[in-house]
Design brief:
This protein is mainly beta and 192 residues long. It has a single domain, classed as Sandwich (Protocatechuate 3,4-Dioxygenase, subunit A), CATH 2.60.130. Helix content is 10%, strand content 24%. It has four helices and nine strands, in the order αββββββαααβββ. Strands 1, 4, 7, 8 and 9 form a five-stranded mixed β-sheet that branches. A four-stranded antiparallel β-sheet has the order 3-2-5-6, with no helix packed on it. It starts with 19 loop residues before the first helix and ends in a 17-residue tail after the last strand. InterPro entries: Intradiol_dOase_C, Intradiol_dOase_core, Intradiol_RC_Dioxygenase, Protocat_dOase_a. Keywords: Dioxygenase, Oxidoreductase. Belongs to the intradiol ring-cleavage dioxygenase family. It comes from Nocardioides guangzhouensis.
Length: 192
């Protein structure tokens, strides 16, 4: 008897494992701008599992506007250094779950909007990637007015806002599950 679409079992969107550390990273993948260059900022943190343990084999990708609020539309997101700012980077976590990027702080893409990085998380045990945002800390009124953040209670809203460290860097920890779980987003057309 021939199979019909109804008889077919859905398969996972992807299989993620420690093997991607060998194939996906590339030189300068986390350096959207050179470390220590004028206007650069370090975006860093850790990825934790549901038990609060660091995830040593996660991969994060960011996409962002530049310091003027323009989302770059240049070909070749992997171009480094000296090329146009592409607004895209990739960082794998180390054995202690740490990741980092050297980038610029994005400006808001519209009047009254809050500035943010878009983030995609790949990790062991995830059948599909996860999406979130990292909002810049600072202007509480702008953050409160953001349509996405305004729809969350205070505790959940906090899980999407980076912390400014004493050295000026931005810290953002990703919690995949548990009491401190980061808010993850679902986009139209994305199953997961």
């Amino acid at each position: 008897m021939p199979e019909t679409v109804r008889d077919l079992t859905a398969t996972p969107g992807q299989t993620i494992g420690p093997f991607f550390h060998y194939a996906l990273p590339f030189d300068l993948d986390r350096e959207l701008v050179p470390i220590g260059s004028p206007g650069s900022v370090r975006l860093h943190g850790r990825v934790y599992d549901g038990a609060g343990q660091p995830v040593p084999d996660a991969l994060l990708e960011i996409r962002q506007a530049d310091g003027s609020g323009d989302v770059p539309r240049v070909e070749g997101s992997l171009r480094r250094p000296g090329g146009d700012f592409t607004g895209w980077g990739r960082s794998s976590t180390d054995r202690t779950g740490r990741y980092w990027f050297s980038t610029v702080e994005p400006a808001p893409t519209g009047e009254g909007a809050a500035a943010f990085f878009t983030v995609t998380v790949f990790a062991r045990g995830l059948l599909n990637r996860l999406f979130t945002r990292i909002y810049l800390p600072g202007d509480d009124a702008v953050l409160a007015a953001d349509r996405l953040l305004a729809g969350l209670d205070d505790e959940r809203r906090h899980s999407m806002v980076a912390e400014r460290e004493p050295d000026g860097s931005l810290r953002f920890d990703v919690h995949l599950q548990g009491d401190r779980e980061t808010v993850f987003l679902r986009y139209p057309g994305h199953e997961g």
